Amino acid sequence: MLRSTFAVVERRAEHAVTFFYSHLFWNNPAMRELFPEDMQPQRDRLFAALTHVVTHLESPGLAEYLGQLGRDHRKFLASPALYAAVGSSLNAAFAHAAGAAWSLEAEKAWSEAYGHVADLMLAGAREAARAGEPAWWDADVVRHLRYGEDLAVLTLRPRQPFPFLPGQYVSVSSLRVPRVWRTYSLADAPRPDGTLELHVSRIPGGVMSTALVDETGPGETLRLSVPGGGLTARTEPGGLRTYICAGTGWAPVRALLAEAAETEPELKGRLFVVARAKEYLYGRHDVERFRERLDGLSVTYITSAPGHRKDQATERLLQSLRACVHWAAHDVYLAGPPGFLTEVAEVLEELGTAPDRIHHDTLPPVGRFTVRPNTAAERLLGPPPPLWHNPSARAPREP
Ligand SMILES: NC(=O)C1=CN([C@@H]2O[C@H](COP(=O)(O)OP(=O)(O)OC[C@H]3O[C@@H](n4cnc5c(N)ncnc54)[C@H](O)[C@@H]3O)[C@@H](O)[C@H]2O)C=CC1
């Protein structure tokens, strides 16, 4: 019942989400304050979470996912009253969007399911509070290193210990863009001095990345919420592995390599570092340091040819991957733009890597041009942004 009604509602997702938030804010005006000014990314997230629940109904991991989601929702100050209000607005939105597919049985199934989801999320939140975990961590910016026009490496010092695993990401909020939270991968294994590193690429129109790259500086305080993410799997000692990253996807791979350099310096594997142009290989210095410490790691840098579109680098990467062998024996760790992850994971499966050996985060799509056009018609409808080529802008400089 849940799946069949969701299939109808999903086809009218845009309509359902608009109805949902209008209903929620009309009936609970005070709740508007809890959400960011720009609701567009929020709208996508609601359906992403619902889709996850509906597609994982029988999965044993669902309860844990919801417990984590509830734990993470403490940063939104989500109270039991908010959960109840969301439940009744969701019900109204679904009834509206499902049309003839809505029935008394459907309503009963959805309200029972939602009750169950809310209970598991609230239990996750309570458990974290009982364990003394803060709803968020305040972290001071201690260094802001800018690479060229649109990339920054931030060093943060959380005011309380911030436990995490290498490869995880963290949700970040800044008072410059109230109530907006965006995830960034932590770019190192836990450090003795407790500082953290984030790599931020400014996305055109992205409010948070613009604030972090252009406006934030040392002395400013950011908020961090519970770490999470899908790059926490580990290869057994002695096992083969391949790391593939694009752009600031270098961040989590750097954390994984930092951990491996400490725990397994004899590891055997390959690393592919992809960037839109040579000047965008901002992590090259670190890569070379890892190459010195990890004898068994082969490193390949791949960029687009000068003057070519940035995703030519992906095509070049796929050619290199096809030229490599033994894919069935490798664990693969992938990080980069959402379209990149999908495309590379598909090719890896063709080459013989088992899907459960391909590890990556599930990223929400960002911006307008996140899906690479496949046909001439798609290219015409969604042309890529112009390539602004400015090599000299990429030299690192301290603020
Ligand atoms: N844990 C993870 O998976 C992480 C993911 N990211 C994501 O990586 C991106 C980083 O952005 P930038 O550094 O500006 O990278 P970028 O926009 O410079 O892209 C780097 C390379 O990725 C490939 N690429 C980009 N979009 C693609 C698409 N739609 N299809 C196929 N290939 C594509 C191209 O080869 C490009 O040269 C962000 O979207 C961010 O969300 C960043 C950090 C960690």
TrEMBL record:
Keyword Chloroplast: no
Reactions accelerated catalytically: 2 nitric oxide + NADPH + 2 O2 = 2 nitrate + NADP(+) + H(+); 2 nitric oxide + NADH + 2 O2 = 2 nitrate + NAD(+) + H(+)
Domain FAD-binding FR-type: 134-234
Domain Globin: 1-126
Cofactor(s) required, per the database record: heme b; FAD
Transmembrane segments: none
Pfam families (UniProt xref): FAD_binding_6, Globin, NAD_binding_1
GO molecular function, one term: heme binding
Signal sequence interval, chain numbering: none
Keyword annotations of the record: 2Fe-2S, Heme, Iron, Iron-sulfur, Metal-binding, NAD, NADP, Oxygen transport, Transport
Disordered: region residues: 377-399
Family: Belongs to the globin family. In the C-terminal section; belongs to the flavoprotein pyridine nucleotide cytochrome reductase family.
Name of the protein in its database record: nitric oxide dioxygenase
Organism: Streptomyces venezuelae (strain ATCC 10712 / CBS 650.69 / DSM 40230 / JCM 4526 / NBRC 13096 / PD 04745)
